[in-house]
Amino acid sequence: MDFNMKKLVKDAGAALSRVVQMTEETLGTTEKTELDAHLEDLAERATTTKTWTEKMLRNMEAVLTPNPGNRIEDLFYEKIDKKKPNRLNNLEYVGHDMIEAGNDFGPGTAYGNALVTMGQCEQKLGQIEKDFIGTASNCYIQPLRKFLDGEMKTVSKELAILETKRLDLDSCKRRVRKARNMLGQQSAERDLRIAQSEFDRQGEIVKLLLEGVLSSQAGHLRCLHEFVEAQTRHYAQCHAVMQDLQRELAGLSGGPYHTSSAATNALAENGQDRARVLCSYDARDPSEMSVVQDEVIGICEIPDDEDYFMGIRGNQRGKVPKVYLETFNILH
């Protein structure tokens, strides 16, 4: 107990000396030991690395998981080392609603079928997005977070210890200057040598850690390359899914969309003969055009061909069997 009390008194005295030293430094009434120029430069560069890494990490997390509540929930599950909940993302919600709507309208109708197809595509995109977020988290977010929670926290801790050692050193220097007798001066000089040794040793420790921080940028660069590769794959997969969707919708409707009433009126205004599709027809070769039941298309006669009309839909042209069409105008 006596030993602990002595230690407590000694620690309290040291803390008081640091407070006095800091106060006098603030007032400009005492000198302050400056750090080595190389160490100062390393510390400044490490601070810059920490600041920008934190900012990029926050921005990346916001991009990958826009909902702040979800980010907090995910972080909580990471802290307790449990699997994250498998929640639906926005694309999957959209896809689910489109499929429900398509089934309600009737998958046998052109619009209902298109909605179901589109909804399935949105769900695929949602899963692709989930896979990308998982990959990006593993290859980029987690390494950066580990760097901040590991190396940078250690550096900050050791820098704080260095500052404490620096205050102890300057406090000893102040005591040497203010010593009033030989005995007091000898005691102060002995404490000064010890404080200088501890300060120098801590400075070397910090310097090694700071150099390690700068070398970690090579690892961050590898993470950046991996993230770019993951993002490239993500957009390529999304592009492929959308191309498949375009082809599938074109196959369902015979074109990018059904002819609306406005388009029908435009055909009439152009003096073009029109026909309503009585039954869906799939083109059998490139010379034909696929059509969907109830679609309205423009038509014209084909010389020497009594079985087909030339169907016209925007820039598309192709033969359509006459038996599938009901004409609006009498052709001449």
Automatic annotation (TrEMBL):
Belongs to the endophilin family. CDD domains: BAR_Endophilin_B (cd07594), SH3_Endophilin_B (cd11802). It comes from Ooceraea biroi. This is Endophilin-B1. It holds the Pfam family BAR. GO terms for cellular component: cytoplasm; membrane. SMART domains: BAR, SH3. Coiled coil: none annotated.
